[in-house]
Amino acid sequence: MPKPHPREFRDDVVAVARKGEAPIAQIAKDFGISESCLRNWLHRADVEDGHRSGTTEADAKELRDAKRRIRLLEQENEVLRRAAAYLSQANLPGK
Questions:
Q1: Which residue in 37, 68, 81, 88 has a CA-CA distance of 20 to 30 Å to 45?
Q2: Cα 14 to Cα 26: distance, rounded to the nearest angstrom
Q3: By the 8 A CB rule, do 35 and 25 touch?
């Protein structure tokens, strides 16, 4: 997989494309990227700027963090459930 382009480069290419002075295909060719890549960058920039609906990077990061936290809490809950079951078996009369 190719190394991702730096954020500054993407921002510059998107700014040039938004000016509309040249076709998307020509801009992509001039900067040495694929046309689909440039279209994806433009779409992502529109979402980040609020011009289009979608999940922003900040929302995606927050969601990832929340899911990670939920997974950790579920694991902790399972450990506590198993510990409670084990301890309740140890306190049964007749053993």
A1: 68
A2: 13
A3: yes
Burial of residue 33 (CB within 10 Å: 0-12, 13-18, 19+) is middle
Structure tokens at 1: 């997989």
Q: Which CATH number is 1's domain given?
A: 1.10.10.10
Kindly state whether residues 23 and 44 are assigned to the same domain.
yes
The three-point CA angle 53-55-56 to 5° equals 105
Q: Kindly state whether residues 1 and 47 are assigned to the same domain.
A: yes
Nearest-angstrom CA–CA distance, 19 and 22: 8
Q: Are residues 50 and 61 in the same domain?
A: no
Strands (E), the chain: none
Q: At what angle do helices 35-49 and 24-31 cross, to 10 degrees?
A: 110
Give the pLDDT confidence of 29-78 residue by residue, as tens digits.
999 999 999 999 999 999 999 888 988 999 999 999 999 999 999 999 99
